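Following the same procedure, sequence and fold were stored together, as reproduced here:

>
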Amino acid sequence: MESHIPVPSQISLNTTLANIIPEKNTMEKITLGPMPYMSVMPTVLVGANVKGKPNYMTAAWATVACMAPPMVCVALNKARYTVKGIEENMTFSLNIPSAKYVVETDHCGLVSGAHEDKSKVFTSFYGKLKTAPLVVECPVNIECKLFKSVDCGSHLLYIGEVVEIHADKTCVFDGKPDMAKSDPIVYAEATYWHVGKQAAKAFSAGKEYKKK
């Protein structure tokens, strides 16, 4: 008597193999078109004297530009009232507000200095440059002299050489501003956020990487 050994169909065989051998983890990408997108950005108050009076505007398009000499940069729409002050004095400041001043900070982004005097929203003081207003209420202030401006189209990119960093004593640790103590505002998706918990130590986590 001839024995009959059942052979699985190709479909059932493929299904079985699929359960045993997991597919490579892939993520489907879609194109969204060109846009000035960054996932998260710092919230800063750009300070400049306009017609002899301190003015502050809220911005998020700011970052480090150079290590030596130390430089930072910020992109401002050409129509902004603050632009006049930077061009007039060749100085400006980047002030880092803490989250408890989120209402005042957002107000400075909603109202133009051309229509409303914003000099009283915060308390101003001046450092070495004498023409770049700094915010007392902000735990960290970056005092800059204009190094160069770049016309990028709708926005002007202002690059400033850092003349001095002013910081509250209570927010300084080991000679540097402490982020946890200053509680800066993070901007993302048209929303203000607190800084989240630490994910890993930079220049350290990568040492654990193992080649596959």
User: Anything to note?
Assistant: The chain has a mean pLDDT of 91. The radius of gyration is 26 Å. The chain has one domain: 41-194.
